[in-house]
From TrEMBL:
Keywords assigned by UniProt, alphabetized: Disulfide bond, Signal
Tree of life domain: Eukaryota
Native source species: Porites evermanni
A Pfam family reported for this protein in Swiss-Prot or TrEMBL: Ig_3
Domain Ig-like stretches: 1-80, 83-164, 172-235
Protein name (database record): Ig-like domain-containing protein
Taxonomic classification: Eukaryota, Metazoa, Cnidaria, Anthozoa, Hexacorallia
Cited PANTHER family: CONTACTIN 5 (PTHR45080), IG-LIKE DOMAIN-CONTAINING PROTEIN (PTHR45080:SF8)
Annotated SMART domains: IG, IGc2
InterPro entries in UniProt: Cell_Adh-Cytoskel_Orgn, Ig-like_dom, Ig-like_dom_sf, Ig-like_fold, Ig_I-set, Ig_sub, Ig_sub2
PROSITE patterns referenced in this protein's UniProt entry, alphabetically: IG_LIKE (PS50835)
Amino acid sequence: MKLTVRENQNAVFQCSATGNPRPTITWSQAHGSGLSDSLQFEPNGKLVVRKVTLADSGRYICAARSALGSANISASLQVEAPPRIQLAPGPTHAKAGQNIRLPKCHVTGFPAPAVTWRKLTGYLPRNRAVFHTGSLTVQAALSSDSGPYECTARNRLGQASKITTLVVWSRPKFTVKPPSVVTKVLGEDLSLDCTSTSQASVSWRRIGGAWEKQRMKVENGTLKISSLRMSDFGD
C-alpha cells in the first residue's frame, strides 16, 4: 500500500485479515514500536493519521496475529508540502580575497524543492559563485560582492524565500591625500581634504601641540583650521 497526502490532510489506511481463530490487527510505525499521538487506530483495522506533517512520512506496519501465527504487511505514506526555509540573516563578515560560504539555506518540502540563489543588488559574481546542496560560496570575494542575497525554494505546491547579508571588508585606501607640506599666511583659513574608500572612516590628530576645538574641526574627512597662528606650525 502506498498513499500520498497533502500536508494538514488526514491519511487513512485500511488493513484486514482472515483466519480461524479470527486474528487481531495492530499497527505500528516502522521506526518504532508504537503510534504517535497524531495516529488513531480503530478496531476494524483502520489507521488514521490526522493533519499529516512531513514528519509523518514513512512506513507503517499492519500485523495480524492469532494463536496459530502472524502475518505482516507494510504501508507507505508520503506527505506533500510546499517549501519552507531556515536561513540565518547574517550579516556574514569576511575579508576581501577570501572564499566565503554564506549560511546554508535549510529547505524542507516535498516534492523536493529546487533551490536557487540571487543577489538582490546587482548580479551573482560570474565564475566565482559556487552552489552546493543549498549553500552558496563566493570565491575570491570583492567589496562589490557585499549586499543582500536571497535563497528561493520552489516545488509545484509553492515557493519560499529568505534573505541573508554579506559584508566584504577591504584594506582602507586613500582616494584623496592632503599635500605633505602646506604654506599659508598667518590669519588665513586652512582646508585639507582627505578621503578614503567608502568602508573606511577618516580621522585627524595633531602630533605635536594641542588640538583647539574652537578653530580645528573635521567635516567629512576634511580638516579645517580657522585664523592660522604661529602655534599651528607642525604636523
